[in-house]
Write a structure and sequence with these properties.
Elements lengths: L2 E4 L2 E4 L16 H15 L3 H8 L3 H8 L7 H10 L13
Antiparallel strand pairs: 1-2
Helix pairs in contact: 2-3, 2-4
Length: 95
């Protein structure tokens, strides 16, 4: 897997197996952390590199991925965006 420089930082050349969108419902930041960890590994990024791309501390990213720490939405959103993961809010119906 190789990295290429873009205007927003470094992006990995995607493995064709992972080039299809997938939807994973996440009821908590712990669930989101698992999805983000999987994506980081697919890209071949270290925790340190991933943290640097979104301006976060590597320990924060590691704890987010393991579900040990609640982090702010801004951090989760920046981390997800840098890895090509969209956060989608979907209304399920009447409350």
């Amino acid at each position: 897997m190789s990295l290429r420089r873009t205007s927003r930082g470094y992006r990995a050349e995607l493995d064709p197996r992972y080039d299809q969108p997938a939807r994973t419902p996440c009821a908590s930041t712990a669930d989101a952390g698992k999805v983000l960890r999987q994506r980081r590994r697919e890209l071949g990024w270290t925790v340190e590199f991933a943290a640097k791309t979104c301006g976060a501390n590597p320990r924060t990213i590691s704890e987010l991925e393991r579900g040990l720490r609640q982090v702010g939405y801004d951090t989760v959103a920046a981390y997800a965006q840098n890895m090509g993961v969209d956060i989608v809010f979907q209304i399920r119906g009447k409350a």
